[in-house]
């Protein structure tokens, strides 16, 4: 049996509530037939996607993650600082909560530590060496959105400016190994393990 796994940074209620309040004013501006908003309980930052993993790999994955967090410099705090389209305004596919440059840098270092450890344990996955952009996906372009190309283009080009500034502290003190199951209603997540940074 295989499991579709990723490693993520979770967020507590104390983080989600102030973001949700600001998001309310943004949500009212967007066309409901184009964007589908993500349940705040599912908000997370994906550090590393591991893809489909066989049951026999799980023990090595858990050990690799534990070694990585033990070797990491420890917990740190940074901020998320704006709500805007992602990955770019010229081709909006999602609505993101964007992290600061310092947060992106810290999470990139953590991602690289995780990758090195997984490789050392021989876990099969596709390493990601791109520059890391810290973000949380707040909404996605609806997959069922169809129509004439001109109509779709016109709607996308008519999207309102968002670029909503805010400053929400984020404590990076734990990460999770999560299974994702795709359903017609969206992704369902099951946490396989939680790991404390520097513990």
Automatic annotation (TrEMBL):
Protein name in UniProt: RNA 2',3'-cyclic phosphodiesterase
Molecular function terms, GO-annotated: 2',3'-cyclic-nucleotide 3'-phosphodiesterase activity; RNA 2',3'-cyclic 3'-phosphodiesterase activity
Domain Phosphoesterase HXTX: 10-96, 101-182
Coiled-coil spans in chain: none
Enzyme class, UniProt record, top EC level: hydrolase
Keyword annotations from UniProtKB, A to Z: Hydrolase
Role this protein plays: Hydrolyzes RNA 2',3'-cyclic phosphodiester to an RNA 2'-phosphomonoester.
Keyword Repressor carried by entry: no
Transmembrane segments: none
Taxonomic lineage from the root: Bacteria, Candidatus Harrisoniibacteriota
UniProt organism field: Candidatus Harrisonbacteria bacterium CG10_big_fil_rev_8_21_14_0_10_49_15
Entry superkingdom: Bacteria
Record-stated family: Belongs to the 2H phosphoesterase superfamily. ThpR family.
